[in-house]
Known about the structure:
12 strands, binds zinc ion, seven-stranded mixed beta sheet, 10 helices, alpha/beta
Amino acid sequence: MSDHLGSYDVVVTPLPPPLAWADPLPPAAPxxxxxxxxxxxxxxxxRAVFAVRGGSFRDKRQFAATSVLVRxxxxxxxxxxxxxxxxxxxxxxxxxxERAPFxxxxxxxxQLDAAGYDRSRxxxxxxxxAHWDHVSGLDGLDVPVLINDDELRYATGxxxxxxxxxxxxxxxVRRYALDGPAYLGFARSHDVHGDGSVVxxxxxxxxDGSVVxFVTLPSGARWAFIGDLTWQLDGVxxxxxxxxxxxxxxxxxxxxxRRSLLAVVAxxxxxxxxxxxxxxxxxxxxxxxxxxxxxxxTAAAGTTP
Length: 305
Ligand SMILES: [Zn+2]
């Protein structure tokens, strides 16, 4: 995997390295049949100079807008919603400097249909945070939105929630409480299924209620979907933050983002870290199989379609 060495114009001092996580990993009992799928809905273009400290103006990055389906016998979840059919209008409604060239592939709605997916399995969309590029696809999904109180307050009151307020109309909003114990360096958590397989941790700073979604699979593989703690894997590998201007514009609490980013860096090697917008970070997560394959794939995973 390229880490864009060539894109660094200047030498950047990384954040101080955190101590690697040395405690036992939290217990998890993921049931047979749990599985992860990625649903890439498109990309938008951002220059590295705006994405990571020291990035080059010449280096154009394709930012992923990818949803993740977490199958579980007690009900499936989507992590974020990707781009929806109305993404062009959503981009047009952004402040001028936030608009970017984008490419829409297939929406989550279309991909679920193409797979012959049974929507009754879906508990809802769990949002890492309420920004447009994570919620646009709610426009075509008639399922509940799972969100914590801090993020709902941000989403309903902050200018960063403008698109959320449009697309959330007609959806049931299910609030969950982050009243569980500390989890892998984060102070508060919520265990979705009660078996440790899907644990949401509060990582506020990009927005008030931004979260990291930790997923543990029956294979023992652990994943951390970290939303926008950093936009690219560079942030994790090089321990570099967003450029100062973008921290000021994009984050409500840059110090909070820094703390959470370092907590994630401490887990590298134990947990696969996925910044929402890094295409390469999703390598190893299969696409949703086409309709005729779904029965076989889910049978192989030990669950019923
Ligand atoms: Zn984002």
